[in-house]
Amino acid sequence: MIGYVTLGTNDLPRAAKFYDALAAEMNTPRMMEFESFIAWGIPDGPCGIAVTKPYDGQAATVGNGVMVALEAKDKEQVDRLYAIAMANGGTDEGAPGPRGEGFYAGYFRDPDGNKLNAFVMG
């Protein structure tokens, strides 16, 4: 089981604004914060997400083929999360809609270029 996912950022305040907005929609608070790292999640809850400036001091880069999927409670929340991402510096990677039988998702990138989606199955 995955405990949390960490994504790199070159601008922590900008990343914090983006992820704070998504986390608010998902009712997921910040659970840990340091000068170069912020994590959102619920202790003993589902997988969390974090953003960090790379420990080695080098620039954060995007992993080709890497994507983080945020599980939404329904299609309407997928739509809201996608809209929140767009309103907070995200870029479009595929508007919300059906992606095969029983799978509904919207794809976007955060301000650092990390790819995410919001999805619901069923």
Automatic annotation (TrEMBL):
The UniProt entry, under InterPro entries, shows: Glyas_Bleomycin-R_OHBP_Dase (IPR029068), Glyas_Fos-R_dOase_dom (IPR004360), VOC_core (IPR037523)
Pfam families found in the cross-reference section: Glyoxalase
Fetch the Gene3D superfamilies from UniProt: 2,3-Dihydroxybiphenyl 1,2-Dioxygenase, domain 1
Superkingdom field: Bacteria
Instruction: Describe the location of the VOC domain by residue ranges.
Output: 1-121
Indicate what this protein is called per its UniProt record: VOC family protein
